[in-house]
Structure formats: C-alpha cells, structure tokens
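User: Let's play a game. I give you a shape written as tokens, and you guess the letters that built it. Ready? Here's round one.
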C-alpha cells in the first residue's frame, strides 16, 4: 500500500462527518413579590430539554432532534458548518454552506483549504437537488473539474454530515442555561465519538466537549464540538461549528451549471 493512502482516507472522512437566548425577570417588581414560584418537575425550556438552570441533566435527544427536524422541514433555512483542524504549524479548514428552500430544493457547497500533512483530493464540491433530480460537480485542489452531472442520489458526503448532532446529544449529560428564547447546553460528560463520525481523524477523539444552543421551539441554532486527536501521530485540536440562520427566509435558485 502506498504512503498516500492514509492521507486519502483522512480526507475522505471529512465528507462523511456530521451537524441550531436569556431568561430574565422584571426588575421593577416589588421586593416582597420576588419569591420564585416552584418549578414543576417536568418543566422544559425546549422539547426534551429539562429546565434545570445550571444542574447537570440528560437530554431527551429523540424529542429535541424530532422538533428540530419538524421545524426545519416546514421552512427554508441556511446551515453553515466549519471544521478546523490545527496542528503545530499548519491548519486545515472545511467549510460547508447548505441552503434549503421551503419546497425542499437544496444547494450545498463544500470547500477545503489545507496546509501541512493533509493534501485534499477535493478542493470544492457542489450539489443541487429539487428532491427528484440530483446534480453534483466537483473540483480538485487545483481547481480542475473532475466530476459534473446528474447522479441517482446524493453522494454519502452530502447525506451524512449532520450525524454529529445526534451523536453528541444521545447519552451525554449537559448543564442547561435557560435563555430568552430557549437554552444553551454545555456538556459535562459525553460518550466517546466513533472515528467514523468525526472528520479528518483515524483515531478516537479525546477530551470531547460540546455546546448546543436551542430555541424554545426546538430548533438547534448552533452547535460547537471540540476534541483532541492525532493526524499521522501528531497531536491536533479539532473544532466543529454549526450555525443555523435565515429560517423561513431562504430561497434556492437552479445553478447555471445544472443542465
């Protein structure tokens, strides 16, 4: 096997990895009326998120993910995801921009910029689909087009990259901080993430931390995951950020390159 295989495997996993407020009180109230009312045991700040206000708890991942999916499918949105891998004297960055219209039409672009030991075979990849027809075009690191045309279905790297949000929410424990429109969840203990779900890593992630911001309706507004791992034996830090925006105000045009 050639020496280039580990690098190809690493970069392939980039495309397989997976993805989004502050409660206050009226300070004008009289002092004698500020005694807080008892909080019901089943009170929540978002679907599946108990109103524990700083106490460590387990999130009902199924309820939260179902609410997130339901609200996204009912409206257009934009989802940005950035993966940054930092070595001693080098950085690799993977940017994804996904736009989804209310009618389900989707456009997504992946761009990879790398230095150091990681040499991406793909520099940019784009996908457009209206739900029944899928078009993809891909460029190498030098900007040469290496693929363009219709495909039977979306390639795996476009279908699987949101899996990370499920992985960090299931079986993890979080500190819940209520906000004006939902909550911020900060991890206290997370399960070990499989290497297959984590970008640019052939080793198990270590020291995994996560921060998730959700609205009271259940939309996951943002997600940040950090962990330590190794690339070719060198210690690296990986940071993954998901950001949701333009909910209900996103349109998707048919690209000129889609015939």
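Assistant: Ready! My guess for every position:
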């Amino acid at each position: 096997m050639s020496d280039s295989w580990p690098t190809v495997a690493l970069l392939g996993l980039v495309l397989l990895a997976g993805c989004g407020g502050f409660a206050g009180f009226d300070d004008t109230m009289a002092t004698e009326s500020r005694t807080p009312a008892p909080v019901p045991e089943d009170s929540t700040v978002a679907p599946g998120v108990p109103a524990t206000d700083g106490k460590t708890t387990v999130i009902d991942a199924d309820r939260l993910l179902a609410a997130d999916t339901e609200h996204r499918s009912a409206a257009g949105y934009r989802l940005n995801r950035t993966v940054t891998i930092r070595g001693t004297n080098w950085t690799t960055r993977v940017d994804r921009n996904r736009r989804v219209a209310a009618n389900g039409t989707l456009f997504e672009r992946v761009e990879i910029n790398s230095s150091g030991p990681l040499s991406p075979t793909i520099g940019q990849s784009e996908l457009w689909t209206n739900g029944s027809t899928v078009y993809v075009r891909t460029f190498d690191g030098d900007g040469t087009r290496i693929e363009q045309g219709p495909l039977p279905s979306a390639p795996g790297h476009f279908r699987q990259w949101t899996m990370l949000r499920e992985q960090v929410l299931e079986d993890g424990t979080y500190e819940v901080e209520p906000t004006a429109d939902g909550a911020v969840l900060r991890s206290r203990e997370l399960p070990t993430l499989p290497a297959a779900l984590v970008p640019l890593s052939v080793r198990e992630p270590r020291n995994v931390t996560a921060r998730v911001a959700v609205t009271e309706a259940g939309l996951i507004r943002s997600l940040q995951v950090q962990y330590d791992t190794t690339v070719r034996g060198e210690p690296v830090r990986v940071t993954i950020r998901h950001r949701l925006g333009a909910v209900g105000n996103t349109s998707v045009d048919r690209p000129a390159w889609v015939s």
